[in-house]
Design goal:
Blueprint: H1 3-13, E1 28-34, H2 39-54, E2 63-69, H3 74-86, E3 91-95, H4 97-106, E4 112-117, E5 136-140, H5 146-157, E6 163-168, H6 173-185, E7 192-197, H7 201-211, E8 217-221, H8 225-229, H9 231-240, E9 245-247, H10 250-254, E10 259-263, H11 265-280, E11 296-301, H12 302-307, H13 314-319, E12 322-324
Parallel strand pairs: 1-2, 1-3, 3-4, 4-5, 6-7, 6-8, 8-9, 9-10, 11-12
Antiparallel strand pairs: 10-11
Helix pairs in contact: 1-2, 2-11, 3-4, 5-6, 7-9
């Protein structure tokens, strides 16, 4: 499906909230809570909605989908989450760590299927990945070991690299975890690590600008909602200072970033819909194992490489799942 077709579907599917439908006795209710209200989030949601329909759940006929975006703040997530709880859904979908954190704290009875969550075990959403128990299960974004792969790929792309600034959210446990893995692997690659906090745009701009004053530097952008929100700023800073940068998700590369390595969100969201289907049909979330991706996408933007003065090694190009000309 072409991107503009995706956007068209997403735009029609994602009025925040969805229009009310005639209530039927046999309708089930699914509440989907996400932190971000932007075009990329709307595109990401589409595979979940399409897979639910493929499985026989048609909004307005046998299911009512209440899809809400909170705009990123914890207070907005709490307010909208309370409104959704009052509608007594049959199952919740927590889209990302922030919404899932609220839902897990708010209810121990309504089934919750989370998706695109970096560290559900460390965050306390479940006590065991294979047997989560309780009312919660879902799909994790990736395992922390992936963070070390970003550093390795960046070094392959830019062999002269000596210093790396790691953009991370110091408030999130997942931000701390990703940084710890990167910091642990750096000495073996001969790299010096600097932390860049993503919580403030001005601070981030100043830190990256100062970092770029010395040669042989690069960027690793770790996964987190604030990295996604500030992606245009981060990509722009990397381009302006000719810093080779690697990102955790494809949409950074398609937006002009140099290279990305991470899971295919479309696959994960289709899998999420399948878990929602199983819960609606009577299975308990606690009996469904939390799953991690089994494959990852390597995307390389040749235009960004040229702008940074880099020649992408042929072995890396041959390994790429997608090359943007």
């Amino acid at each position: 499906m072409r991107r503009r077709d995706f956007v068209k579907i997403a735009g029609s599917a994602l009025a925040w909230p969805l229009a009310a439908h005639a209530q039927q006795r046999n309708q089930r209710r699914v509440g989907i809570l996400t932190a971000l209200d932007d075009a990329e989030t709307k595109i990401r949601i589409v595979p979940l909605l399409q897979e639910l329909e493929r499985l026989g759940w048609v909004d307005g006929r046998n299911i009512r989908i209440d899809l809400r975006a909170a705009g990123g703040s914890a207070e907005a997530i709490r307010k909208i989450g309370q409104e959704m709880l009052s509608a007594t859904p049959d199952v919740f979908v927590g889209f990302g760590t922030g919404p899932t954190d609220y839902l897990v704290r708010a209810t121990r009875t309504v089934p919750i299927v989370f998706t695109i969550v970096t560290d559900p075990l460390g965050a306390g959403f479940v006590n065991n990945l294979a047997r989560p128990g309780g009312n919660v299960t879902g799909f994790m974004l990736f395992e922390y070991s992936l963070s070390g792969k970003w550093l390795d790929l960046l070094k392959q792309l830019s062999p002269a690299l000596k210093r790396v600034a790691v953009i991370r959210d110091p408030v999130l446990g997942s931000g701390i975890g990703q940084f710890a893995v990167i910091q642990a692997i750096a000495p073996a690659l001969g790299l010096e690590i600097t932390a860049v906090n993503v919580r403030d745009r001005s601070e981030m701009t100043q830190t990256i600008t100062a970092f770029a004053d010395s040669p042989n530097g690069g960027l690793v952008v770790t996964a987190g909602p604030l990295s996604a929100v500030n992606r245009e700023l981060i990509i722009g800073l990397a381009e302006r200072h000719k810093l080779p940068a690697i990102y955790f998700e494809r949409f950074f590369a398609t937006a002009g970033g140099l290279i990305s390595y991470g899971p295919n969100f479309n696959d994960q969201l289709r899998d999420t819909a399948q878990y929602v289907d199983r819960v609606l049909k009577g299975e308990k979330p606690g009996n469904l194992p939390v799953q991690a991706p089994t494959k990852y996408q390597l995307v390389i933007n040749l235009k960004a490489a040229k702008a940074a003065g880099l020649v992408v090694p042929r072995p890396l190009l041959e390994r790429a799942d997608e090359v943007i000309e």
